[in-house]
Amino acid sequence: MELLGTGLALLGAALAVGLSGTGSSIGVGMAGQAAAGVVSEEPDKFMKCLILQLLPATQGIYGFIVGFLTLIKLNAFNGFIMDSGAFISVSGGLGIFFACLPMAIGGLFSAIHQGKVAVAGIALVAKRPEESTKGVLMTAMVETYALLALLISILALFIPDWA
């Protein structure tokens, strides 16, 4: 039973990293397919398409940050598994688990939807390359929700009573 709290906290970290990374890979993959189609016809549009393709990747980075901060909170880099006194309570583990969920869920869905907007931006670049900035701005608007998820997860991780 003493491992349950620590296990829940680690599961939260794994979900933040895994789901955000999954969403990013889906979004980047969709945008990459669209970009490859445009670049195959017009190679000079590569950089404009690449910028749009890269934007959905940030959610994976945000999930990694939340996972890393969770491991720091758990003192994982100092051998917490070996020290039986370092395990956290079930309520503490649940608190950390739920603190990671905004980034896990927000990262997954915002990256996928950002990828869809990036695909539309790439279509814009294909027809009107001079309007690429508008495509980047529209794609970046979806990023706002990933940033909010990151912020709430970080703030919730460092509520003093957990752990």
Automatic annotation (TrEMBL):
Keywords: Ion transport, Membrane, Transmembrane, Transmembrane helix, Transport. The keyword Nucleotidyltransferase does not apply. It is a multi-pass membrane protein. Its main location: membrane. Residues 11-69, 98-155 form the V-ATPase proteolipid subunit C-like domain. InterPro entries: ATPase_proteolipid_c-like_dom, F/V-ATP_Csub_sf. Belongs to the V-ATPase proteolipid subunit family. The keyword Cell inner membrane does not apply. PANTHER family: V-TYPE PROTON ATPASE PROTEOLIPID SUBUNIT (PTHR10263). One of its GO terms (cellular component) is proton-transporting two-sector ATPase complex, proton-transporting domain. This is V-type ATP synthase subunit K. It is found in: Membrane. The chain crosses the membrane at residues 60-81, 93-115, 135-159. It comes from Candidatus Stercoripulliclostridium merdigallinarum. GO terms for molecular function: proton transmembrane transporter activity.
